[in-house]
Description:
Helix content: 40-55%
Low-confidence stretches: 1-10, 476-481
CATH topology of the largest domain: Beta-Lactamase
Shape: rod-shaped
Mean pLDDT: 85
Strand order of the largest sheet: 3-2-1-7-6-5-4
Radius of gyration: 44 Å
Strand content: 25-35%
Distance between the termini: 140 Å
CATH architecture of the largest domain: 2-Layer Sandwich
Number of domains: 3
Structural class: alpha+beta
Oligomer: single chain
CATH class of the largest domain: Alpha Beta
Amino acid sequence: MTEPGAGSRSAALLQVYRLLSGIHAEQDLTNKMQAVVDAVVDSAGFALAALNTVRPTGDFEVVAVAGSVQAREDLLGVVIPASTFDEEFAASQAWGRLRFIPHDRASSPQAWFWDPEIEPVEAADAWHPLDALLAPLHSSDGVLIGVLSVDMPRDGRRPSVQQRGLLEVLATEAAVALHNGMLSDQLRESESIFRQAFDGSGSGMALMAIEDGRFGRFTRVNPALCAVLGFEAEFLLTMTDQELTHVDDQADEDALVGDLMAGRIDSYRREKRLRHHNGGHVWVAVTSTITRNRDGSPRTGVSQIEDISATRMEMEALHFLASHDALTQLPHRSAVIARLTASVGQSRATGRPGAVMFLDVDDFKLINDRFGHATGDQVLVMLADRIRTAVRADDLVGRLGGDEFVVIADDLSHVEARALAERIQAMVSAPYLSRSIVLSVTVSVGIAEIGSDGRDAAQILRDADHAMYLQKKSAAVPQGSLPPE
Length: 485
């Protein structure tokens, strides 16, 4: 036997299911809100329904109206101060989750709802034209995000318990839909802002997957990064940060990424070299961080990449000028002392000797006096080039000033040092052609050993200078010859 009223309850449940299905079928938030008020008018027994949502300013705006074309024209887009609803809620009677405001307690209904201009009916349960029934819409965290308003029950009476229940269900769905829609709109707005900022940034930007505790393949790159590296985006999306990083910079990068993944640092900034389409590398300043999942695990790598090639070149040029002689482009005294100090430390650590050679041009003053300083400078430049050609690739050739030069050679015995000195002297003594003048120049060379005897760089250099002075004094090396006047 069927339970009395079961059929009507089943029909009511089916009706609610269909209403909710229709609401959820709408993807656009505006259409979803309109579906809610349409459902109120079509199924809850009210001739008029309006939905108000909270604006960023805190006021309310009517975003959906159903039941009257005139009411829709009059109400849609109307902005209602938040204080108005505060006053109405304060004067209302609680009907479950609904709020009923009798006409004799309403503050000023005309200010926020449509007056249908219907004559009131004298009956205890009659609906007065100025009565109001509101359903506050709250987000999941209890924040008021909207109000559903209904009016004009079709039977002219205050709504029944069944009508109120259906209205509460629809209001609940409206709150869920509105909250989700607001979150979706915020997400889309955030994504739009991020996309515009990401793609429009003047600095290179990259998102990277996290794979095996390190940065994996690029998942997104912006046009600025493509311009810095000279690659198309399609190619970069097949690469990893490690594959683009210069091999000499990878170890430091791996250590920093490891600290980032482990949470020991929140971000890092460093300079490194990245592969360029032209086959070389470009210097960049990279600032990297990661986004994390709710459980704290790494989610996505984010890097901002700035091209600093020009700045790097300027810094290297300044560093070169600060440590090199402007005329010959050879390292000057401070750079020579720094290298000699390092060579002393290396010799002490390995036990293998090295050598310092102090070179002085013979009779250089005569060249300046007879042919002028411009010719003398040209001779010094050619002399520097010949010394560089004579020594080994790892040896340092420096200029201390005037016509004094130094060669620092590591891992070299005394016999090998003397052979190198003779090779330098032979190459230097070949004739020079300067301004149609043929000159033959010689140099005196003094040698001091780099070893583990406790002498520091300054003392070793003085010893080499003294050895050169003794050689010049003994005229062990033939003096240069000048053409006749």
